[in-house]
Amino acid sequence: VNTTTLEDREFVLKLTEGGGVPSSSDRSRFFEIAKASTNLNWCSRFFEGWWTKLREGVASEPVAIMHLAYIFRHTGRHRDSITTSNVIEFGRDRFRCPPNLMSMIATNRAATFLDIYERHNDPEVLRLAKLAVGKAWENQKSDEASNVYQRLDKLKREMEEDNYKARVNQAYADWADWT
Q1: Sign of the torsion angle spanned by Cα atoms 135, 78, 112, 32
Q2: Predicted confidence (pLDDT) per residue in 12-43, tens digit
Q3: Do the beta carbons of residue 89 and residue 66 sit within 8 Å?
Q4: For 40-44, 108-112, 128-132, which range has the lowest pLDDT when averaged over its residues?
């Protein structure tokens, strides 16, 4: 069921037909409307276009980075989400960002690393996720960051269980020779 109001639809139409970059608050409203949809693919081109135009004149735009990293993650563009969120690795002198936004970007980055881990089972990715969620928690404690910590712990436990089972299976591989 689509619960988008007529006012929201008109707002989206106005923003998508305009040639310039909407204000940060208009982009945030657009982002909230887009998040309510079941598929974010339709809006990614607008956020990417606005980001391209913003980068021409602004060194950093934390709200735009947060929007884009979130959209990339939720459209399966994990590499783009990670590269967009690399800004959390910069010092505060290179990337000026309020702690709440830094936390959102870092939380999304950590969740993206966990998405990648679930596909590739590379333990190094869990380490990167832990570093990112640590930065998120350091900047602002949130339910979202807590959920990422819980997901990280679950994936670590599953990895340890799999490693244990593999060692046990290896130890008993030649059980037939025992008889």
Answers
A1: positive
A2: 998 888 888 888 999 999 999 999 887 888 88
A3: no
A4: 40-44
For the full predicted model, state whether its pTM sits above 0.90. no
Nearest CA among 86, 99, 92 for reference residue 138: 99
pLDDT at 2 over 60: no
Q: What is the 3-state secondary structure (H, E, C) of the chain?
A: CCCCCHHHHHHHHHHHHCCCCCCHHHHHHHHHHHHCCCCCHHHHHHHHHHHHHHHHHCCCCHHHHHHHHHHHHHCCCHHHHHHHHHHHHCCCCCCCCCHHHHHHHHHHHHHHHHHHHHHHCCHHHHHHHHHHHHHHHHHCCCHHHHHHHHHHHHHHHHHHHHHHHHHHHHHCCCHHHHC
Q: Distance between CA 113 and CA 107 in Å, rounded?
A: 10
Q: Mention every residue, 6+ apart, whose C-beta is less than 8 A from residue 152.
A: 110, 114, 126, 129, 130, 133
Cα–Cα distances in Å, from 16 out to 26, 37, 83, 85, 110?
11, 16, 25, 24, 30
Is residue 1 predicted with pLDDT exceeding 50?
no
